[in-house]
Design a protein that fits this description.
Length: about 525
């Protein structure tokens, strides 16, 4: 029996209030929203790149360069480990996915193999299962990545790069960037509202690999510049062009960095404060304690920022990096360091910018299409079911639109052109439930049932069909959202929200308003009966 349940009225009123509360901000200008009291919620829809303009970048992840670096690190690991074990090495050469270590003394084969196998679990490079140690003849040992580890480096590097790029873009204040994988080794970045694509490209592309390495004081920098570079060292330039001879062995890297912040040095100049995790603090403390009086280099992306002398053991795991910083450059570097270092270099394959005028045209076209769709639905429902029943379905449709906008604003969803298409499709589908209910009422009324019985049958017997029809739609939308990316997900998200709100409004709003009408008018016959 159709009756006016109190909980239905309360639920409908509460939904309308919340819908208006979380959607009204979209009708106000930024200045008007700022002028509102702080306690009022002010969520708004985020417009996508195709609606408000912005920057588009297609990035290539240089996985080959990362693999080369990882294999090169194997050489330094093996050299350092065998040196600490007092095992003489006559040569370390590249061998496929690893290195071939040649021992000076065949009698040291067993302790050398043991030392390298102990290195597998040290966490220096990869995991234990990533690498292998195998004898190669009487004096040779092959220390290498497994084929599976080399293959897995590509997808892992892309996934890590996506997360790093997302954190870096977030630090710029760009709202709802779209960062997705394209193919095996490419990343698509869409940053709506980002007016400076050069800054976006600069922040994204900087590798930001921070390392702390000892300066080689045992060999001459002049001889190294002349070509006599020791095998365990390399020549790097400072910010002012000064050359440094630096040990290849990395003491601590940016992976151990917990926090970076802008601070000042003793001369009140901008500097960068840093703090390591427990492992990094121990390694840094042990190295500085063993090298008091020697300089160590702080290196960012292959350039020496500074090379201070160790005056005492630094055991707290924190310190400051001094250099020729400005407040702006220090802040940008801090954002990069806190965002994490890229596992592999990124190169820009394609760059595009969408102007605000194009976005405004798209918004106007979307608004026009939505109005046309709404008008078409209104005319159809009024002609099919009269002003009362057709008008009630239009009221439900208006509330459905309010709830969709409120839900998308609350969840911070990004509205794109495909999203507008999903919204228009939702408006067209929203009256399907009303059509099913009304047609069932009409059949019951034509069969001689009373208005109350016909309305009761219309709601009760049509619900199974309504649920079945919308369940398949929302399952399809969820599949698109799960497996899709970018515009496809925007369409799927809008459609999913619309399906839920359309069923809610089509049933509840229609039922409550018809119950009011039934109580007030007490008709002898339903107006939609043929």
């Amino acid at each position: 029996m159709v009756h006016l349940s109190r909980w239905k009225v309360v639920l409908l009123a509460l939904s309308l209030v919340l819908g208006l509360l979380f959607s009204y901000g979209n009708a106000l200008s930024p200045a008007q929203r700022e002028a509102l009291p702080a306690w009022l919620p002010k969520p708004t829809l985020n417009l996508g790149l195709d609606l408000q303009g912005g920057s588009y970048l297609l990035l290539q992840v240089d996985v080959d360069a990362m693999r080369e670096k990882r294999v090169a690190n194997l050489s330094e690991d093996a050299r350092q480990t065998l040196s600490e074990a007092r095992i003489a090495v006559s040569g370390i050469a590249r061998d496929g996915n690893g290195v071939l270590v040649t021992l000076s003394n065949p009698a040291q084969m067993d302790p050398a193999v043991t030392a390298l196998r102990n290195l597998l679990g040290a966490g220096g490079v990869g995991l234990a299962s990533d690498r292998t140690v195998a004898r190669q003849g009487a004096v040779g040992i092959r220390y290498a990545f497994t084929d599976a580890a080399i293959t897995a480096m590509g997808p892992t590097a892309v996934d890590q790069s996506i997360e790093v790029v997302r954190r870096r873009i977030d630090s710029l204040g760009t709202r709802e960037p779209s960062i997705t994988r394209q193919g095996a080794e490419r990343i698509v970045v869409q940053a709506p509202g980002e007016s400076d694509p050069t800054q976006l490209e600069r922040v994204i592309g900087q590798t930001a690999q921070l390392t702390f390495q000892m300066v080689d004081v045992e060999n001459s920098i002049q001889e190294a510049l002349a070509g006599a570079v020791p095998p365990d060292a390399e020549v790097l330039l400072g910010q002012d062009g000064t050359p440094y001879l630096v040990k290849r062995r990395i003491i601590v890297s940016g992976e151990n960095l917990v926090d970076a912040n802008v601070t000042t040095d003793q001369s009140n100049r901008p500097a960068i404060g840093f703090r390591f995790d427990g492992q990094g603090a121990r390694r840094f403390g042990d190295t500085t304690a063993a090298n008091i009086g020697k300089p160590f280099a702080i290196i960012l992306d292959g350039k020496v920022i500074s090379a201070p002398t160790i005056n005492s053991a630094i055991t707290g795991g924190s310190g400051i990096i001094e250099g020729s910083f400005t407040i702006a450059s220090a802040s940008e570097l801090v954002n990069l360091l806190n965002g994490g270092s890229l596992p592999a270099p990124l190169t820009v394959e394609e760059r595009r910018s969408v102007t605000a005028s194009l976005g405004a045209d798209a918004v106007r076209a979307g608004q026009l299409a939505t109005l046309i769709a709404f008008a078409g639905v209104l005319v159809f429902m009024v002609l099919s079911y009269g002003f009362l029943f057709g008008g009630i379905s239009v009221v439900a449709l208006l509330m459905n639109g309010i709830l969709i906008i409120a839900a998308m604003s609350m969840t911070g969803a990004t509205l794109t052109l495909p999203g507008i298409a999903g919204l228009i499709l939702t408006l067209a589908m929203a009256v399907d439930a009303n059509v099913l209910i009304y047609e069932r009422m009409r059949d019951e009324a034509n069969a001689g049932r009373s208005p109350i019985a016909a309305m009761d049958a219309g709601f009760n017997r049509a619900m199974v069909t309504i649920v079945d029809a919308n369940l398949t739609t929302i399952l399809a939308a969820l599949i698109m959202f799960w497996f899709g990316a970018g515009p496809v997900r925007g369409f799927a998200w809008t459609l999913s929200i619309g399906v839920v709100t359309s069923v809610f409004t089509a049933v509840l709003v229609t039922q409550v308003l018809l119950a009011f009408w039934l109580r007030l008018r007490r008709p002898k016959k339903l107006p939609i009966a043929s």
